């Protein structure tokens, strides 16, 4: 069980007025989707919640403890970040990269155990990457690399997933597979908080939605109360048509 809490949180975006502070308890089992136009501050919020970026004001708490008091390693044992783009500076294989997810649990010169390798291999299998286990990450396609990032987070077995556009670069099949995996993680008790550009994935897979407007205004709540066409049209400055498929709204730009 885990709770990530934002208290009077204002993300520090240079040159922007404070907007609304974010106050929320993001709890085990919940799947939050953050929506907003380019530059609205989704990544900045995610990095602030991960403790990678200091807030302008307010604080973030993990299980009641301020992130500023937590050691980076203790934080990494609970919280994984899937970045929007990953820079791999060292030549490493897919398996070696997935094993980075075990590093928060190892002492500085400790080698990964067979159990760690098994966890990494299970994660690679889940992301359909087993055949690529020994390939250098630098030789992979964009979608394959994205799946390696998610497999690395899965190997970390986090209680909290902060995922920045986890379906970036993925084809339709893998988009659904990754959203199903995150859904499964939430069902097993994880917190899932992700930035998304695809309204229809958000409508189908998220139970809470946070809307971020470029001026710092924000609102959030249960997905069915947030995914209102008039509000989304204002959010994106784009007219939309909406229909319903399998009980979920489907939005089409018009
Ligand atoms: N270190 C920085 N210095 C100056 N401006 C910054 C910095 N970091 C972010 N910004 C600005 O803050 C705003 C929010 O950026 P952010 O990446 O959080 O937006 P986003 O909603 O994730 O956008 P996108 O949908 O394009 O990924 C942008 O206008 C960006 O240029």
UniProtKB/TrEMBL annotation:
Pfam entry (one): ABC_tran
InterPro entries: AAA+_ATPase, ABC_transporter-like_ATP-bd, ABC_transporter-like_CS, P-loop_NTPase
GO molecular function: ATP binding; ATP hydrolysis activity
UniProt keyword annotations, A-Z: ATP-binding, Nucleotide-binding, Translocase, Transport
Domain ABC transporter: 4-239
Function: Part of the ABC transporter complex HmuTUV involved in hemin import. Responsible for energy coupling to the transport system.
Protein name: ATP-binding cassette domain-containing protein
